[in-house]
Automatic annotation (TrEMBL):
A single MF term (Gene Ontology): methyltransferase activity
Name this protein carries in UniProt: S-adenosyl-L-methionine-dependent methyltransferase
Source species of the chain: Lasiosphaeris hirsuta
This protein's UniProt keywords: Methyltransferase, Transferase
GO biological process per UniProt: methylation
C-alpha cells in the first residue's frame, strides 16, 4: 500500500532514476513535473499540445479503422431514460451512451471498454487489500445497499456475494450489466442526476465509484443520497484523479502521459463536468454540504506499470497497465474528439502513451480518494 489506513500517503519507491521524455516537443524546453525540482519551479507550466503535435513525433504503429462519426456534442434530450436506453451513439467505431436528460457520459460502453473497467475493478480492489468498502459497515446489519453508476456491475456483484443477507441494487444509465446475478442483486436503469426514485431513508449503504466527468453538481447528488440513506447509514464515494503524476520527475508535462490530464482538463470545460474531483476535494465538501457527519477519507495511489519495487504495488501496477492496454482509446476518444482532434491524431497519441507505459522509464501513478460519511441518527 502507498498509504496507511489513516490516509497518510507514502511515496511509491522509484525503480529507476528520473528520465527525460523520449517524445518531448521539438520546440519546447523539457520540463519536470511540478514540485520535483527548484529548476522546474521557474519554468512556466506547459499547456496542452495541439493534436498534430503527436503526429510530428517519432512514427508509431497505429491501426486506422475508418469508421465514421455521428457524434453531436450538443445533443440532449428530456426523454425518459427507459424510452432511450438502447439509443446508443457511435463515435469513430466505438459505442457510447446517448445523451438523455441530464446524463452525459464520456467513456465508451462497448465490450472493449467494459472489459477495461472490470480490470480496473480488480486493480482497485487489490490495492485496497480486497476491501470493497472502507465505511465501517456492520455485516449483520446491512439490509439494503445501492451502487450508483454501477457500470458493468462488477463491484455490486462482489458486494452482493460478501453481504448475502443484504438486498443490493446497482444503477446506471447504460444497460451493460450481466443478467446472471446472485439472488440478492438487481440492476436498475436510473439517472442519478435526476431526483432519485428510491424510498426515502431506505439504504444502509450507498456506494459510488469513478463518477468523475459525469456529475455537474456533486452536492445535489449527495443530497439525493442523504434523502435515500437511513439515519445512521453510510455514503461512500471513491474517485480517481484524471492526471498521471510521478514522484521522481519521470512523468514530464511534455510526455504523452503528462498531457493526459490536460486533455481532460480542457475537455471538461466543454463537457461541463469536472474531472478534478479528487484534486479539488469535492467529495468531502459536497458530503458536508449534504449533511453527512463523521466524514473520513483515505488517499492512495495506483501505480501504472510494473515499476514499483514493492511486489504488491508491482502487481497493482501491472493490472493498471493492463486496463490501459485493454482500452485506453475508450477513455480518451470522446474527450479528444470534443477538443477537435482527428482519429489518426488520437491513435498516434495513444501509441505514444502506451509506448511510454511499456518503456519502464516512466513511473506514473494516479491518485485515488475514498471519502465516507454517516447520516446522523
Ligand atoms: C467509470 S464507470 C465506473 C463504473 C463502476 N462504478 C465501477 O467503478 O466499476 C462510470 C459509470 O457511471 C455511469 N454513469 C454516468 N453518468 C451517470 C448518471 N447520470 N446516472 C447513472 N449512472 C451514470 C456510466 O454509465 C458508467 O457506467
Amino acid at each position: 500500500m502507498m498509504a496507511d489506513e489513516g490516509g497518510h500517503q507514502k511515496s511509491p519507491s522509484p525503480a529507476v532514476s528520473p528520465t527525460k521524455s523520449p517524445t518531448g516537443p521539438k520546440e519546447s524546453p523539457r520540463r519536470k513535473t511540478s514540485g520535483e525540482s527548484p529548476e522546474r519551479a521557474q519554468l512556466p507550466p506547459v499547456g496542452i499540445f495541439p493534436a498534430d503535435h503527436w503526429r510530428d513525433q517519432e512514427p508509431q504503429a497505429a491501426d486506422d479503422d475508418d469508421a465514421d462519426s455521428t457524434y453531436d456534442s450538443d445533443q440532449s434530450s428530456t426523454a425518459s431514460i427507459t424510452s432511450t436506453i438502447l439509443n446508443y451513439r457511435m463515435l469513430l467505431g466505438r459505442r457510447y451512451h446517448s445523451e438523455t436528460g441530464n446524463a452525459k457520459y464520456w467513456v465508451s460502453n462497448d465490450d472493449k471498454a467494459n472489459e477495461s473497467q472490470d480490470i480496473v475493478h480488480h486493480c482497485l480492489t487489490l490495492a485496497l487489500g480486497g476491501k470493497l468498502h472502507l465505511a465501517p459497515l456492520d455485516k449483520g446489519r446491512v439490509q439494503k445497499a445501492v451502487d450508483i453508476g454501477t457500470g458493468t456491475g462488477i463491484w455490486a456483484l462482489d458486494f452482493a456475494d460478501e453481504f448475502p443477507a443484504a438486498e443490493v441494487t446497482g444503477t446506471d444509465i447504460s444497460p451493460i450489466q450481466p443478467t446472471w446475478v446472485p439472488p440478492n442483486l438487481k440492476f436498475e436503469l436510473e439517472d442519478c442526476t435526476h431526483d432519485w426514485t428510491f424510498d426515502p431513508e431506505s439504504f444502509d449503504y450507498i456506494h459510488m465509484r469513478w463518477l468523475l466527468g459525469s456529475i455537474a453538481d456533486w452536492t445535489a447528488l449527495f443530497k439525493q443520497a442523504y434523502l435515500s440513506c437511513k439515519p445512521g447509514g453510510w455514503l461512500e464515494s471513491f474517485e480517481t484523479s484524471s492526471r498521471f503524476e510521478s514522484d521522481d520527475g519521470s512523468v514530464v508535462e511534455t510526455s504523452a502521459l503528462g498531457q493526459w490530464g490536460k486533455i481532460f482538463e480542457q475537455g471538461s470545460k466543454v463537457f461541463g463536468r469536472s474531472f478534478s474531483v479528487v484534486d479539488d476535494g469535492i467529495q468531502r465538501k459536497a458530503m458536508e454540504e449534504a449533511g453527512f457527519v463523521d466524514i473520513e477519507e483515505f488517499n492512495f495511489k495506483i501505480p501504472v506499470g510494473g515499476w514499483p519495487k514493492d511486489e504488491k504495488q508491482k502487481q497493482v501496477g501491472r493490472f493498471a497497465q493492463l486496463s490501459i492496454e485493454q482500452d485506453v482509446e475508450g477513455y480518451v476518444l470522446l474527450m479528444a474528439t470534443t477538443l477537435g482532434w482527428a482519429r489518426d491524431e488520437i491513435l498516434v497519441y495513444i501509441a505514444h502513451m502506451k509506448r511510454e507505459v511499456r518503456s519502464g522509464k516512466f513511473h506514473p501513478y494516479y491518485r485515488q480518494k475514498v471519502v465516507w460519511g454517516r447520516k446522523p441518527n
